[in-house]
Amino acid sequence: MSKFWATFKLTYSKKLKSKAFIITTIFMILVIVLGANIDKIASMFQGDDNQKIGIITQDQSLYQAIQSQGERLNEETNYSRMTEREAKAKIKDESLDKAYMITESKDHLLSAQILTREASTQSDKAELSAILSQIQTQKVASDLGLSATNLQQLQREVSVQDQLVSNSDKSSYNTNKEEEVFSKIIVMVGTFMMFFIILTYAQQIAMELATEKVSRVSEMIITSVKPTIHILAKISAVLTVALTQILVLGVTSVVAYVAFDLQDKLSELDIHLTGHMIRLIIFAVIFLILGVLTYVILASIFGNLTARIEDMAQSMMPLNLLMIAAFYAGYFGAMNPNSMIIKVLSYVPFFSPFVTLTRMSLPETPTFEGIIVIVIHMILIGLLIWIAAKTYRNAVLTFEKGVIKSLKRVIPKKS
């Protein structure tokens, strides 16, 4: 056991101090910090909110309505009524940011042009369109003799919710739009995190084992350490490095949540943790760990079978293709988790960590479905560990070119 820990500590320390680990960790920490302050960063690039906007119209009441609606959206914006000639002159000498030229038909239908020194942004056009649409609706409603109450009733949105009825008992479950969106966010974040962690550490473990083999270090190792102990220590160390990085990012997220007042921002989105959300988060963590374990151990098998460093990309291609297929199945499965192909793939090994996570985003998906997948993958992980130990032991002194030839060499032939 002491030899296991010696190999484990050496590999863990080396990976933890590597430039790749430090750079990727710092990069992801910066992404989290920037994401927590995205509203402040966006406001920095929006420029000065204290804009001066001219209104070109013949109707004083229309000007007052636009001014009232505009100041309701942004109190710091200053509006002033002027002629087209005055507006163009002030825009040229930069004493005016922009001007709205408003025309009104006999039927109270409004149209507008934006006068600016530069091309208008889509947000500027959308903001003006929203202001004028509200005013136009009020004018048309007034012509039709509709009261303010009648207008509110016409504009009121229809509320639509899901009510999921269980087949097994009397219970039912209501879902809302916010919960559905938050569920998809959890699935997307979990899927992307799983993909990039696997991509990073699967390559590392395969390269670690192949480098030892090519440099003939393995010939010295097997004289002092059992191959099974050595390979398990290597895999455990790389997995622990991955978990360390996840822990660092988790702590960073918690610190960012507290330090940058993210609670107020989330409360504005009306997001609450329900029983379904808690279940989804728990399964997301479990599938993240299972997915990383599965693919990293599989990568170690390919590393064992690689005789030359230059063959590493070719050796890892089957794993990369499998992982990309599973990633896209999970990603696009989030759009329609109830499709038959997603239901089938949720039980397929190597696909299930990505795909079953999308299935669990549906409240009607039974919990036992996720438990079955967990059991399947735990059995698969045990089988992969056995294969990894066997291939390392049998291939440690094998230098055949190509994965297929190496695999044939390490498989014992029947006499």
Automatic annotation (TrEMBL):
UniProt superkingdom: Bacteria
Gene Ontology cellular component list: plasma membrane
Protein name: ABC transporter permease
Gene Ontology MF annotations: ABC-type transporter activity
ABC-2 type transporter transmembrane domain location: 19-389
Residue ranges of the TM segments: 20-38, 181-202, 235-260, 280-305, 317-334, 340-358, 370-389
Membrane topology note: Multi-pass membrane protein
Keywords assigned: Cell membrane, Membrane, Transmembrane, Transmembrane helix
Localization terms from the record: Cell membrane
Source organism (scientific name): Staphylococcus felis
